[in-house]
Amino acid sequence: MDKFIKPRMRMIDSQLISRGIKDERVLKAMExxxxxxxxxxxLQDQAYADSPLPIGDRQTISQPYIVAxxxxxxxxKRNDKVLEIGTGSGYQAAILAELADRVxxxxxxxxxxxxxxxxxxxLGYYNVLIRVGDGTYGWREESPFDAIIVTAGAPEIPKTYIxxxxxxxxxxxxxxxxxxQTLVKATRLxxxxxxxxxxxxxGCRFVHxxxxxxWKG
Length: 217
Ligand code: SAH
What we know:
Elements: H1 5-16, H2 24-32, E1 53-56, E2 59-61, H3 64-73, E3 81-85, H4 91-99, E4 102-107, H5 110-122, E5 128-132, E6 145-150, H6 159-163, E7 165-176, E8 181-188, E9 196-204
Parallel strand pairs: 3-4, 3-6, 4-5, 6-7
Antiparallel strand pairs: 1-2, 7-8, 8-9
The chain binds S-adenosyl-L-homocysteine.
């Protein structure tokens, strides 16, 4: 018996539904996935708290509400192919794996990628492929993507992501300075990469997206 079921259900009600998350598929996925397995053993009792948590290498697993908000905004359909930048603990990738057909995820820190890969395999998520590298280049060979989610903050929208979105595809990315960002949703409207619609989803605070089209270190 999973002793974390109760805190997990409480998280769904008090942090997600109460703040306006409505998508049943997103709520079901977050109800199912054992978030406590994605943090160190010593932090498991805090895994369902209303905050981000450290996962080592100065990186963090995002606050549950932010995971839900970003996932809902991606409007995933069962057959979608999704790209995630910043695998971290692998928690967001597991949520995506529940909702889409294929998930590709890029992480720049090899030790985090290894741990996430092992955990996702243990949990039976065989539709996730994780690669180590600079995710600001995207994953051109696997493009186009129906959705791209960036879980680290960038100074501006890397153009590679718009190029690698399918027409009708959705990109969610935190944009701002090094301290605070705004969650931006960009939808690609046509073959022309300039033809995008953007929407502001609110304030947030992420670790830095470091790479060629992100922060330089
Ligand atoms: N989605 C994660 C949270 C990740 S924190 C989860 O569910 O746990 C952000 C992650 O982005 C960190 O692990 C960091 O190493 C990674 N990152 C930062 N810049 C990157 C880049 N250019 N390419 C790939 N990963 C990057």
